[in-house]
Amino acid sequence: MTRAVTGLYLRAVVEERGVDVEFEVAPGEVLAVIGPNGAGKSTALHVVAGLIRPDAGQVRLGARVLTDTAAGTHVPTHDRRVGLLLQDPLLFPHLSVAANVAFSPRSSRAAATRWLAEVEAAELAERRPRQLSGGQAQRVALARALAAEPQVLLLDEPMAGLDVAAAAAIRTLLRRVLARDGRCAVLVTHDLVDVLTLADRVLVLESGRVAECGPAAAVLAGPRSGFAARFAGVNLVRGVATAAGVLTTDWGQQWHGTADGEPAVGRPAVAVFPPAAVAVYRERPHGSPRNTVAVTIAGLDAHGSTVRLRGADQPDGAPGLAADITAEAAAELRPAPGERVFFTVKAQEVRLLPGPDSGERQVS
């Protein structure tokens, strides 16, 4: 069944939790919200759902105003047309699966039957929640959320407690339902696979503020915040553009690279490069690599035939640089935590991007 699509707007200040966030989700779009624990991700969802009243702000779903602190508007949760799917399915233990799905005032037994079939759980209709596996329970929870005919779906790490196969199945279901029905959705996740398979855009929250927001592919390929860089598995160095193709850090280290987005001289910039582009030496090398930095090894991790060397945090507190080398190279180098080595990166492997201004609140 095709429905009219509706967009979402959120502006919320929750002083007790240090949250000051604003974003929009276009009709039919999936926005992934990522960030460290305590950054305000779930708080933002709960404001949209009406579970938290912000100190200041507004929530709009299409033309409907759900929250407006200035006007004193606060639509109750059950009247918002918002579906909320959590890590815990929160099924009523005394009800059958079918009765759980039909529980919403907007649902019915017929709708429950249809949605259970949609999520490939029709055969579970007469079971009780205690008879379900984790993946089955989450399918039922998704059917219950959709049977209420929500205009926006809020997903708060719904795959986090599932095994790999069950999580993959839920992602497939979500992708199919969201693409077909055109609902907008907000997905809070710590899983890169969720972003890669479901999200159109990514918003990064750090300390209750929007650190960056953009198309999923662009954010993952060229992150401009520390968390996004860790999430995407790339190295990130912050500084200021001091010349064309040159970034200088606060501690005087220069990075040469290829300018992307033309970071203006004198403005914040970031250097981004993959761990696989880093070569590691015991002594400072001479010759072609233009970017060479001394790094104190903080740890090592083995992934198959690759060993990742992790450096100590950078002087500005940003995560330490990482280098991926072969097991053979690691055996020859014999690196150990606490030792100093040199990381080198060719300039053509480094992307220089405009960085967010310090303290700037970015709005999507």
Automatic annotation (TrEMBL):
SMART domains: AAA (SM00382). GO terms for molecular function: ATP binding; ATP hydrolysis activity. PROSITE patterns: ABC_TRANSPORTER_1 (PS00211), ABC_TRANSPORTER_2 (PS50893), MOP (PS51866). GO terms for biological process: molybdate ion transport. The keyword Nucleotide-binding applies. The keyword Transcription regulation does not apply. Keywords: ATP-binding, Cell membrane, Membrane, Molybdenum, Nucleotide-binding, Translocase, Transport. This is ABC transporter family protein. It comes from Mycolicibacterium hassiacum (strain DSM 44199 / CIP 105218 / JCM 12690 / 3849) (Mycobacterium hassiacum).
